Amino acid sequence: MEELKLTPVSPEIIDYVEREIIPRYCSFDKAHQENHVRMVIEQSLKLAGHTPSMNAGMVYVIAAFHDLGLVNGRENHHRDSRRILEADEFVKAHFTPEQIRIMGEAVEDHRASNSQKPRSDYGLIVAEADRFINAETIIRRTIQYGLAHYPQLDRAGHYQRTIEHLHHKYGPNGYLKVWIPWSDNAKNLKKLHALLTDKPRLDEIFNRIFEEEARPQA
Question: Which of 69, 82, 126, 129 could be disulfide-bonded to 104 (CB atoms 3.0-4.6 Å)?
Fold first, then answer.
């Protein structure tokens, strides 16, 4: 599908997000730090480029705020992220109440385990951008999360947890849904299904990434 052109995000919004929002991700686990939020921003704007009538500032802010609720833990982070966005004084000064409602719903709807389709195109975009399906990236983030939250597991335990997570979330019967059928995610999910049947290749990827992530920091 041809990518069109969005109206640029205002420098004022970019400056605020760079100064006040993105630095908050530094305190989260390795799977949800600055590189993750920047990826979601980039992918969101790319997807929104196919619908140039969308408000680029809204897309940018939704992507920037989408995981801020992790400050209170993972379980309700999507709802907490919405509350943080809707309470933000900069956001309230630069967007209308209706725009803020749409942005808040989009943030709340981004969670991959959400079985309901997002309520707006803005929600579809951030949900799709957050999924960014790339096998090695997903395996790395799964290992990173496991090392941070399940330190009692040995290598075999992390392997089992990683494989179970891949099947539970990304497998043919997994809960993750791709909402935009023409997206790169739809193509890459099929590739991931094939990888899940290729144990030697899957083992090679896991072992290589686990060695990198479990290596003591110098």
Answer: 82
Q: Where are the domains of the chain?
A: 11-131, 135-214
Q: What is the DSSP letter of 119?
A: S
Q: How sure is the predictor about 177, in pLDDT bands with cuts at 50, 70 and 90?
A: confident
Distance from C-alpha of 32 to C-alpha of 149, rounded to nearest angstrom: 13
- DSSP letters of 157-198? HHHHHHHHHIIIIISTT-S---S-TTSHHHHHHHHHHHHTT-
pLDDT at 191 over 60: yes
70: closest CA among 36, 120, 95, 117? Answer: 36
DSSP letter assigned to residue 120:
S
In degrees rounded to 5, what are phi and psi of residue 16? -65, -45
Spatial contact of 78 and 86, defined as CB atoms under 8 Å apart: no
Q: Average the pLDDT over 123-141 and give the result.
A: 91
Q: What is the reported pTM?
A: 0.76
Distance, in Å, from the CA atom of 8 to the CA atom of 194, rounded to the nearest integer, reads 38
Of 161, 46, 67, which is closest to residue 111 (Cα–Cα)?
67
Quote the pLDDT of residue 217: 66
Give the Cα separation of 86 and 98 in Å (integer).
Answer: 11
Residue 14 Cα to chain centre, angstroms: 19
